[in-house]
Design a protein that fits this description.
Blueprint lengths: L12 H11 L16 H9 L13 H22 L10 H11 L3 H11 L7 H10 L12 H14 L6 H16 L6 H8 L3 H8 L6 E2 L9 E2 L2 H7 L16 H18 L20 H8 L2 H14 L7 H24 L3 H17 L4 H23 L7 H4 L6 H6 L8 E4 L10 E4 L5 E6 L5 E6 L3 E6 L5 E6 L5 E6 L5 E6 L3 E6 L4 E7 L5 E6 L6 E5 L3 E6 L4 E7 L5 E6 L5 E6 L3 E6 L5 E6 L5 E6 L5 E6 L3 E6 L5 E6 L5 E6 L5 E6 L4 E5 L5 E5 L6 E6 L5 E6 L3 E6 L16 E6 L5 E6 L3 E6 L5 E6 L5 E6 L5 E6 L3 E6 L4 E7 L5 E6 L6 E5 L3 E6 L4 E7 L4 E6 L5 E6 L3 E6 L5 E6 L5 E6 L5 E6 L3 E6 L5 E6 L5 E6 L5 E6 L3 E5 L6 E2 L18 E5 L2 E5 L5 E7 L7 E7 L6 E6 L4 E5 ...
Antiparallel strand pairs: 1-2, 3-61, 4-31, 5-6, 6-7, 7-8, 9-10, 10-11, 11-12, 13-14, 14-15, 15-16, 17-18, 18-19, 19-20, 21-22, 22-23, 23-24, 25-26, 26-27, 27-28, 29-30, 30-31, 32-33, 33-34, 34-35, 36-37, 37-38, 38-39, 40-41, 41-42, 42-43, 44-45, 45-46, 46-47, 48-49, 49-50, 50-51, 52-53, 53-54, ...
Helix pairs in contact: 1-2, 3-4, 3-5, 4-5, 5-7, 8-10, 12-14, 12-15, 14-15, 14-16, 15-16, 15-17, 16-17
Pfam families: WD40 (PF00400)
Protein name: Vegetative incompatibility protein HET-E-1
InterPro entries: WD40/YVTN_repeat-like_dom_sf, WD40_PAC1, WD40_repeat_CS, WD40_repeat_dom_sf, WD40_rpt
């Protein structure tokens, strides 16, 4: 039985009901009785449920429950006489009992309240109180409601409790005591409550002594006064029900003023940094021994209440109240971070966002100082940006979270002066928070499609209201409405020169519009069903359309002529897209398939299957290497566009996925769903980055702006939303790459960091200061790999432009370009003596070069695309991983083939030798790492990892431990045991006695930079990289001049360099450290 469900907290109640009702049919021998007032969030679930018998008690005939009431009243009245030991008073008559039953009507709460009033032990006049109840008269007949009898009873109780309810002092005390009980958001123990509302215990006792029928009085200081039943709160806060004005409790500004001032005073008195005495900043909340006791001792019930509810009280205070403005200024300038820490410790961080938004709104409306308004707004951004971290570790508020707060914001400037963070972000921190979400509403029907003008200045939307709308994408101002369709507009697309706008409609036709004039210039007819999708070719010479008539059409937009009809699908075609080179066309259909077509001839090229339901949307990545599709099976499929194979199935939506779009910079893939969310994924790996909530209806369309900074979405309720494409995260730093980081490399002395990016450039960084040194430009394609020579003099880079570039690492001068490959160069590596440079390519060749002379030495054919190359420590062997599922071993001097190692069932993407050269390891898309004996070339172990996307393989300094990093996890393997054993991923509680700074390994585990000992055991959480820097694509660490630094490359183009010198964990090891080697 679930009784009084409406008295539970609203959040989660509807979910519990839905789960219960959805599984009720599977429990045939179980019956569940639920009682509740019909609050909206509960009644909506009841309305939709099928396997439910509903009874509204107010509609039950009074005669049905009269006997139950009579039995209850007779029994309870009898108990009163016995309890009060009033034997001289005659027993209750049937007339008295029947009269009380009649007064109660259908409400048991009336009877229960009456019994408590009659049996008040302090008064000891049960018959007199019964007479008061029976003599209570209703007001005018016209005012009779379902609660009239109960309201009259409450009035009688209140009138009897006060000697003079017109006396100012008495009523002031009543309002203060009863008002606080009613208005406080959570009951507080008597002692704390009296201090909080600033009244004496005598005031409490005097006020409540005659109100025991409606309020439960506390019997001890640690007990809380509370209301017997919510119906009394409903009555006393509603002037239309409580007919005596002096009794009405409202959230009057004076009363709430006392509450909020007391809240702010208590926080000022008790909040402090590390209030629970955790001390160790690397500990997660869940790992703190005795954390519950620490929090309970440090944060009393009263202070916890204050932290949770101060902003709700603030919302009821008169705007501009001077004392509150002054207190709020102090809170904003000194207490924000301490309050956020406290909210983390008490598990209420989610409500902190609501609180700070409410406080920010009050401060703006009160015209507080700009600094106060700005700090509160920054605090909202701070919580949103670092919510995941702060929930895990309260102390990281002052360290990772503050360190990664944009350095030009008021919050950072105010708090970084007085809070000594143990982490310094030398490079990669942002300057400002982004703009907030904006919503544009003008359509009267669902928005089915949105598209940006190629210059990003305008935005078009097509709707069920049969119109297209043009918008200023910067200001959000409405520009024009294009009318001409007689049916729903299903799809819109701009030509790549921005002159034309195409639209497809439910009425089977396409319109071409002059963008500047807003007029229809051509109408294209040829389909026999609704036109569901339109797309221009990159050169603007072709226009493709998909239709419910199972076909696609190709058109010449300049001539307005039909070119070809493409047939191949067996159901409605929902989406069409051109490849970036304009040579291919992809279509998605309700027949669950994608078709690839020759965009010039219209010939069918291939049919791709992977979805189990209708394919609703298709898109090519900007480089043409990836293909995405969304489906009614609630997934997104990410494919290799060249091979057609599915790389990853992206799961995260709980409704139809109806739209997918790649960002033009190649970093992100967005998917819109009928579950009212947008998911943002890493476009290369498919890793989930963020879920955008806050939409009020199903998402029908998503698209990125040409500069990738904005994401637009159209929803079923006609709202057009503009989001920052980085999901509410800061703008990249001035020297950050403009595209994903593909490779990081440290110079041998640890002083320089090189980063290669998909933006075609390399950057050099000073590891000590984090300063940007130089931008190296010379490639015309994505940079895939970078490597320093062993003496640190040269830097090599490989690129999609088929070339290897050599650079002077000290002067950042381009030395030479090595040409010899016919396709992308995927990997470069120097030999240990620096006399050889190896490069692997998708042309299936591995080239050896003399880096001193810039001369070609040899080319070895590997029969499959080469993905990775590595020299053995003695420089005699060269290993390469290939897309042929094999590892090749070559003679590093001549390039001669030595052996081919078979053991993987998918592409081999990484190879590495152990420091002693005895072992060779390889990582593959088949989710495994193979360990090979480098001498006998026999596979001695196969290790299973959780992902195909193995980002790095590295050995410990002694070669006894292997670290494998994937996009989702980090694994350490003990190679001294046979077979190799997985090292525990739990943080060690006690540090190994031999650990020193130079023996540490650093890796990314989730978003944490963790320190590992030489055996691969995690020993500390060091620094947390916020979600908007995701995904990380590489990690490098060094301790030049005994100053530990960790560098992280990110998919959004950020290069992060973090100084860990002041981290307590690092300082504990400093005494054991030797100079960097």
């Amino acid at each position: 039985m679930l009784d009084a469900l409406d008295e539970c907290e609203e959040q989660g109640t509807d979910t519990i009901l839905q789960l219960l009702l959805s599984h009720a049919s599977q429990l045939p021998f179980l019956r569940v009785l639920i009682t509740s007032r019909l609050e909206p969030h509960i009644s909506s679930v009841f309305t939709e449920a099928r396997n439910l018998a509903k009874r509204v008690l107010h509609n039950i005939e009074a005669s049905v429950i009269e006997e139950d009431l009579r039995l209850y009243i007779r029994s309870e009245l009898g108990k009163i006489l016995k309890r009060l030991k009033l034997g001289s008073i005659p027993d209750w008559t049937d007339g008295e009992i029947n009269s009380l039953v009649e007064k109660s009507g259908k409400l048991f709460i009336y009877a229960a309240t009456s019994i408590r009033f009659i049996g008040d032990a302090r008064v000891q006049d049960p018959r007199g109180h019964l007479c008061l109840i029976l003599d209570t008269q209703l007001t005018k007949e016209s005012e009779v409601t379902a609660y009239s009898q109960l309201d009259s009873l409450h009035i009688g109780v209140l009138q009897n409790s006060l000697s003079d309810f017109n006396h100012k002092a008495i009523m002031k005390r009543f309002q203060m005591v009863v008002g606080s009980i009613v208005l406080l958001w959570q009951p507080l123990p008597l002692g704390l409550w009296a201090q909080f509302v600033q009244c004496t215990l005598d005031d409490v006792d005097t006020t409540l002594c005659h109100l025991r029928s409606v309020i439960i009085p506390p019997l001890a200081l640690d007990e809380a006064p509370c209301i017997y039943h919510p119906s009394f709160c409903d009555f006393i806060m509603d002037p239309s029900r409580c007919s005596i004005p002096n009794f009405v409790i409202v959230a009057v500004p004076d009363q709430e003023l006392r509450h909020v001032l007391q809240c702010l005073k208590l926080m000022e008195t008790f909040l402090r940094q590390d209030i629970a005495g955790i001390l160790d900043v690397s500990l997660l909340n869940s790992k703190v021994k005795g954390s519950e006791e620490k929090v309970r001792d440090a944060l009393s019930v009263e202070v916890q209440y204050t932290c949770r509810y101060w902003a709700l009280h603030l919302s009821c205070v008169e705007l501009g109240e001077k004392r509150v403005v002054e207190a709020l200024e102090g809170f904003s300038k000194w207490l924000l971070l301490m309050w956020i820490e406290a909210m983390s410790l008490i598990g209420s961080l989610s409500s902190a966002i609501v609180s700070i938004e409410g406080a920010h709104q009050w401060a703006m409306n009160s015209k507080c100082e700009v600094i106060v308004i700005t700090l509160l707004d920054n605090a909202r951004q701070f919580i949103l940006a670092h919510c995941e971290l702060i929930q895990e570790s309260a102390l990281q508020v002052y360290h990772s979270a503050l360190a990664f707060t944009p350095y030009d914001t008021a919050l950072y400037k105010t708090y970084s002066k007085d809070v000594k963070s143990c982490i310094r972000v030398l490079q990669g921190a942002d300057a400002q928070w982004p703009q907030n979400l904006s919503t544009l509403i003008s359509h009267s029907g669902a928005i089915n499609s949105v598209a940006f003008l190629p210059d990003g200045l305008w935005l078009a939307s097509g709707s069920d209201d049969c119109t297209l709308q043009l918008w200023d994408a910067i200001s959000g101002q409405h520009i024009a409405t294009l009318q001409g369709h007689s049916g729903t507009v299903e799809s819109v697309a701009f030509s790549h020169n921005g002159l034309w706008l195409a639209s497809g409609s439910w009425n089977h036709i396409l319109h071409l519009w002059d963008v500047m004039l807003g007029t229809c210039i051509v109408t294209l007819q040829g389909h026999s069903g609704a036109v569901s999708s339109v797309a221009f070719s990159p050169d603007g010479q072709r226009l493709a359309s998909a239709s419910h008539d199972h076909t696609l059409c190709l058109w010449d937009p300049m001539l307005g002529m039909h070119i070809a009809t493409l047939q191949g699908h067996s159901e409605s075609v929902s989406s069409v897209a051109f490849s970036p080179d304009g040579l291919q066309l992809v279509s998605g259909s309700d027949d669950h398939t994608l078709c690839l077509w020759d965009a010039i001839s219209g010939a069918h090229a291939a049919t791709l299957t992977s979805h189990s339901k209708d394919v609703t949307s298709v898109a090519f990545s900007s480089d043409g290497l990836h293909l995405a599709s969304g489906s009614h099976d609630e997934t997104v499929c990410l494919r290799d566009a060249v091979l057609g194979v599915c790389i990853a199935t992206l799961q995260g939506h709980s409704g139809f996925v109806v739209s997918v779009a790649f960002s033009p910079n190649g970093s992100w893939l967005a998917s819109g769903s009928w579950d009212e969310t947008i998911c943002v994924w890493d476009a290369m790996s498919g890793t989930h980055i963020a879920t955008l909530h806050g939409l009020s209806d199903a998402v029908n369309s998503v698209t990125f702006s040409p500069d990738s900074l904005w994401l637009a979405s159209g929803t079923q309720d006609g709202a057009l939303c503009l989001w920052n494409s980085m999901s509410g995260t800061p703008i990249p730093a001035p020297y950050a790459h403009s595209n994903s980081i593909s490779s990081l490399a440290l110079s041998p002395d640890g002083l320089l960091l090189a980063s290669g990016s998909h933006d075609h450039t390399l950057h050099l960084w000073d590891v000590i200061s984090g300063a940007h040194i130089a931008t190296l430009e010379g490639h015309s394609g994505q940079v895939t790999s970078v490597a320093f020579s062993p003496d640190g003099v040269q830097l090599a880079s490989g690129s999609y432009d088929n070339a290897v570039c050599l650079w002077d690492a000290k002067s950042a001068r381009h030395i030479t370009t090595l040409l010899g490959h016919h396709h992308e160069v995927t990997s470069v590596a120097f030999s240990p003596d620096g006399l050889r440079l190896a490069s692997g390519s998708t042309d299936r060749n591995l080239c050896l070069w003399d880096p001193i002379l810039g001369a070609h030495i040899a080319t070895s054919y590997c029969s499959n695309l080469v993905k990775s190359v590595a020299f053995s420590p003695n420089g005699l062997q060269l290993a390469s991983g290939s897309y042929g599922k094999t590892v090749y071993l070559l003679d590093a001097m001549s390039g001669a083939h030595i052996a081919t190692l078979h053991g993987h069932s998918d592409w081999v993407t990484l190879v590495a030798f152990s420091p002693d050269g005895l072992w060779l390891v390889s990582g593959s898309f088949d989710h495994t790492v193979c360990i090979w004996d480098a001498i006998s070339r026999v596979c001695i172990a196969t290790l299973n990892v959780d992902s195909w996307n193995i980002l790095d393989l590295a050995f410990s300094f002694d070669g006894h431990t292997l670290i494998s990093q994937t996009s989702t996890n980090t694994f350490a393997w003990d190679l001294t045991s046979q077979p190799p054993q997985l090292v525990s991923s739990s943080i060690l509680e006690a540090l190994p006695p031999t650990i020193s700074l130079s023996s540490l390994m650093w890796c990314m585990v989730g978003r944490w930079i963790q320190a590992l000992d030489s055996e691969g055991h995690p020993v500390a959480h060091i620094c947390y990289i916020p979600p908007h820097y995701s995904p990380w694509t590489g990690v490098q660490a060094s301790s030049p001049l005994n100053q530990p630094r960790v560098a992280v490359g990110c998919g959004d183009g950020h290069v992060i360099i973090v100084d860990l010198q002041d981290h307590p964990f690092v300082q504990r090891l400093q005494h054991a450290e030797t100079p960097y080697r």
